[in-house]
Specification:
Blueprint (H helix, E strand, L loop, with lengths): L1 H19 L6 H12 L5 H10 L1 H11 L1 H4 L8 H36 L2 H21 L15 H11 L9 H11 L4 H30 L6 H29 L5 H25 L1
Helix pairs in contact: 1-2, 1-11, 2-7, 3-10, 4-10, 4-11, 6-8, 6-10, 7-9, 7-12, 8-9, 9-10
């Protein structure tokens, strides 16, 4: 019975990951919140690793949906088109470098200090307000970068610096990179797509690092059941991410991100109240 519950919980977590990874509302925050309500998946250490590794399913969704833009070796591509793909990957590498270096150096410290529900609640509210303020500020502005090829290496690096903020759970990796890109003069469409592309090496590296750390520490042997739980979560995240990515691409063509800002504020307030009064209900 417990094994079945673990599979069901993994399936639900995969849905949460697939939706919230790409929408600027914090996937890690939502995963932590769900586990705060339901308890850890198998064990606390396994849950921490699962929350990162499940992102691999979302990575595959980006690769599948944007294969033509990300793969330079198609015989149908012209020399110019291939060079544009090489240029895109070069800018992605420049953009992910800051978070890659800092994330590896401070991973343990960040986990110990910031992984709790109150930090998640606070960052949900703070960045929700920022989304609304920045969207209002940019309402009458014409983006300087309206297509990906116009994105400069300097802008890519600065977007990567904004991504450093996402090392704190609840902030949202896509949220910080999209906000940063908009502040730097990118259109919403460019901001969203470049955020998707940045996710591939970032999430792949984070997943590999967390898995290696989990196995190296010998906290728990990963048997068939644990692998199946991971597979259910990743497969679910992949399928749901396909729909979430398509939704967001269509959404940004006609709408701004203020709705996500309001959602973050409301959710953050509800969570603060819940965790503040939870001991009263428990008593």
């Amino acid at each position: 019975m417990q094994n079945l519950l673990n599979y069901v919980n993994s399936f639900i977590l995969g849905i949460i990951q697939g939706i919230t990874e790409w929408l600027p509302v914090s996937s890690t925050g939502h995963l932590l919140i769900w586990q705060g309500f339901t308890g850890d998946l198998i064990s606390g250490e396994f849950s921490e690793m699962f929350n990162v590794v499940v992102q691999f399913g979302s990575i595959l969704a980006v690769v599948v949906l944007f294969w033509n833009k990300l793969f330079p070796f198609s015989p149908k591509k012209t020399v110019q088109e291939r060079n544009e793909v090489y240029s895109l990957w070069s800018k992605v590498i420049v953009a992910v470098a800051p978070a890659g270096v800092i994330g590896v150096l401070l991973d343990d410290w960040i986990d110990s200090v910031f992984f709790n529900q109150y930090v998640v609640s606070a960052t949900l509210i703070i960045y929700g307000v920022l989304f609304i303020v920045i969207e209002n500020r940019n309402k009458s502005r014409t983006p300087a970068t309206s297509v990906i090829p116009q994105l400069t290496y300097k802008t890519a690096l600065l977007i990567g610096c904004f991504q450093l903020l996402a090392l704190i759970p609840g902030t949202s990796r896509s949220g910080t990179t999209i906000l940063g890109a908009i502040i730097l003069g990118c259109s919403r469409n460019v901001a969203a797509e470049f955020s998707f592309f940045m996710a591939v090496p970032v999430m792949l590296g984070a997943s590999a690092l967390k898995m290696l750390k989990y196995l190296k520490n010998g906290m728990e042997f990963i048997g068939l059941h644990e692998w199946l739980v991971l597979f259910v979560g990743m497969a679910t995240a992949f399928v749901v991410s396909i729909f979430a990515l398509k939704f967001l691409v269509g959404y940004v063509r006609k709408h701004d991100f203020k709705a996500f800002g309001y959602y973050r504020i409301v959710l953050g307030i509800v969570l603060i109240l819940y965790f503040a009064f939870k001991p009263c209900f428990a008593g």
